[in-house]
Amino acid sequence: MIMPPRLRKFALAAHITLAVGWIGAVAGYIALDVAAATSQDPKTLRAAYLAMELIAWYVIVPLALASLLSGLIMSLGTKWGLFRHYWVLVSLLLTIIATVVLLFETQTISYFADVAADPTTSGDDLRALGNTLVHSVGGIAVLLVILVMNVYKPRGMTHYGWRKQQEQRRASQRSKQDEQRKVSQP
Amino acid sequence: MANRPPYPGTPRWVKVFGIIVIVVVLLVVGLMFIGGGEHGPGRHTSSGEAGGQVAAFSVMEEHALPEGGRG
Predict the structure, then answer these.
(1) What's the domain count of chain A?
(2) Are both A30 and A47 inside the same structural domain?
(3) Structural domain of residue A179, as residue ranges?
(4) Same-domain check for residues A86 and A167
(5) Number of C-alpha atoms within 13 angstroms, CB side, residue A103?
(6) Are residues A106 and A173 in the same domain?
(7) A131 and A171 fall within a common domain
């Protein structure tokens, strides 16, 4: 079902807001992740781990799920479709992968926060805890690839998209011929 | 059906992208294999229980190992 223009604009604005918000939230998370990786100060480490959990659960995860949902609505509600163009299909797959990795990573983040929240955890233990930089930097790279792909929309139709396009062309040609026949008849 | 134009084929960027993805996945799997296959919060715990609290010394022990990488 194709959305009417006003609804489509609203859905597009919502999708852009959610997707770009997701990238921004991950950028903020990376700042905390870098602090967790480099700081030697127990107070900074404790604060970083606790803030990482809050940002991950209350900002990044909701934005990721909402972006995925709004992306599905945008593709199904417009001419682009979900499986017709490679750029849509690749964006969908990358978004699903990024969301699944994020959901698994929240376990590690929550574990770090649990250890950091424990007042008996020593400074040495906090310094030895670790970080999630590989996942967060990898995640933002994937999100930027999706962003670039959505802006440039590289050409290329899938087999399914090509077949559907040919069917639509044939149907429109047939209806034109029918109209011409009706006009030419006395 | 006879005058249907042939499918133009998969674009080059999709093929290049696919190759890059396969290489990255193989690299990640290889690194995980070299790292002993431990991944996720389990690598930070002594019992491998995801998200569980551990004694402080076990956290220290885990990261004292040279291959116990961060991230």
Answers:
(1) 2
(2) yes
(3) 159-186
(4) no
(5) 9
(6) no
(7) no
Query: Is A90 in the same domain as A103?
Result: yes
Interface of B with A (CB under 8 A): 4-5, 7-8, 10-11, 13-14, 17, 40-41, 44-45, 50-54, 56, 59-60, 62-64, 70-71
Q: What is the average pLDDT score of chain A? A: 94
State the pTM of this model: 0.81
| Alpha-carbon gap: B11 to the closest alpha carbon of chain A (Å) | 6
Task: Among B16, B63, B65, pick the best mutation site for testing chain A contact (most A Cβ within 10 A).
Answer: B63
- DSSP letters along B48-71, please? --TT----HHHHHHHHHSTT----
The interface pTM score, or ipTM, of the predicted complex is 0.79
Nearest by CB to B14, from A37, A86, A120: name it.
A86
pLDDT of residue A178: 87
Same domain assignment for residues A109 and A35:
yes
pLDDT tens, A96-120?
A: 999 999 999 999 999 999 999 999 9
The secondary structure of A81-132, three-state, reads CCCCEHHHHHHHHHHHHHHHHHHHHHHHHHHHHHHHHCCCCCHHHHHHCCCC
Q: Quick check: A125 pLDDT over 90?
A: yes
Are both A102 and A140 inside the same structural domain?
yes
